[in-house]
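Q: Fold this one first, please.
A: Sequence and structure below.
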Amino acid sequence: MTGPQHPRRPATLASLAAELGVSRTTVSNAYNRPDQLSAPLRERVLEAARRLGYPGPDPVARSLRTRRAGAVGLLLTEALSYAFRDPGATGFLEGLALACEKAGTGLLLIPVSPEHSDVDAVYQAGVDGFVVYSVSEDDPHFRAVLQRPVPTVVCDQPTGITGVDRVGVDDRAGTLALGRHLVELGHRRVGVLCMRLSSHRHDGPADIARQEGSSYAVQRERLAGLRAAFTEAGVDWADVPVIERFEHSLDAGADGAATLLASHPGITALVCTSDILALGALREARDRGVRVPEDLSVAGFDGVPEAERLGLTTVRQPFREKGLEAGRLLLERGDRHVPEYVTLPTELIVGSTTRELRQSGEFFSGW
């Protein structure tokens, strides 16, 4: 009988160099600095590596030597599934991924809960820089990012952070245009359904103090734009019911709309600060037998594909371009030390879910 077969020891950089009769630097350059070798020599090194089973330089050792991880960290203060479920986040992720592909850089998702303060995932992430996707001003994970000695780009929020690049849209201008559209249609009795205003769970009415004190700049600005539009028309904003929902989902939109319609049955228009909430509100209206827009005008913000397919009146923003710009700011910064702020355009899309208020007796026929 033959003795036990010992597995062949995998080739190393040193053994490959010895096999080829070249220096270890030459082998290393074939992977890390191919411009230093002639094409035939590099191909000879790579062919021998394949034949001998050499997997290439150890990425951990290489990162220690070069002090580069070869990856961008994307901080999401949501569950990982949110990045693939929410259409806005998905569009942004696509744009950022395209920027990373162009630069030959990896992308590391760092999802953390907005309700927990454990920041170890941020401190332990092996990345060359961070893109922070829409977090609150008091988020501990964001503060941990700022403590890392790597460049950072913020998408949307927080705003006004010294020395940090940012890409976003003018949220206040977007909802100002949306509010004026509803005013021009004759609507004065409106209700608002908004996304979370703080990192602490709250599902219920949001008074003016809570709106103005929100730690989420995007929601604060969107509400401010609506407030400006209706104040121009003589509406006392203190009389406008604003309902907040912590979760960003269709169910949260439906539940928030149910609460708002039950407590304020006289409203003629329902404005949501995101399309996801608006889509949930449309579902709730349908289930209640409320006709949109005959009985109730409904509008949103974002311009996600499903909203546009259903003809929702909304404010479209360029999610994919946001991701591309965030990647550009981080990966093509060079020696730039001055922060750059990019504001992308929004567009009011008038769909089939809003219409002119014609006479009071026409509304609420299905209630």
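Q: Good. Now the second chain.
A: Here it is, same layout.
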Amino acid sequence: MASVRYSAAPRRRDELLRRLEESGYVSSSTAAAELGVSEMTIRRDLGQLAAEGRVRRVVGGASLVDGSAAPPFELRRGEAAREKDAIARAALPLLADAGVVALDAGTTVATLARRLPQGLTVITHSVPVITACTGRDDLEVVALGGTFHRATRSFAGPATRAGLADLAVDVAVLSATAAGPGGVYSADPWDADTKRAMAAIADRVVLLLDHRKLAARAPMRVLGLEDAHAVVVDDEATPEQLAMLRERCERVVVADTGAAP
């Protein structure tokens, strides 16, 4: 749609609520472009609506309080693409001695799936990861069943957890909606449950976190940063964020995005 400037905050917030009721999710960057204001202005609007209990802040925007807390997979996949690619490349050496890896349903993990070295056995509940891996003849794939969740394009629930219970994994590669001193968080309880189950059967856990996740919030705690063997984060994380990670995690790998200083 063409950009329409919404200079009055009440009118702008009403429009944001209308969009949320229509689709369940609003992207800060998209709303800013279409309403003719800055992304910071939209973030302030969403922050005010969240303070009033009318919306839930999630990575990249907001969702309805009584709706899905996770924005659609396709939208999340297109965000921070450069950072996700850099993180995926930096994570590869952490899989060098692994034979069996579990990959969760995060968009950064899906980026890693396209770069996996040959010879691995991949265990996953993510449809994009399954698609990427079954397109190759040099990987073994164990696909987990369960209840399909369209927002994450993955399977989850009791059947997924039961499938993981009988498996053994060298490395579980996990993503997150948010991370901070209190640990790693997800926006969806079933997604959080699957991540915990993957971590429980793995010898090592590797977390892939683009810098935006270190400033985000989500309701479901998955595990502590100290429970991870390594965290891979892009170089746009602040010195304070990196210090926080290094204080809590055994190993922190900073991925070079190639961005100008």
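Q: Anything worth noting on the second one?
A: The longest strand covers residues 202-209.
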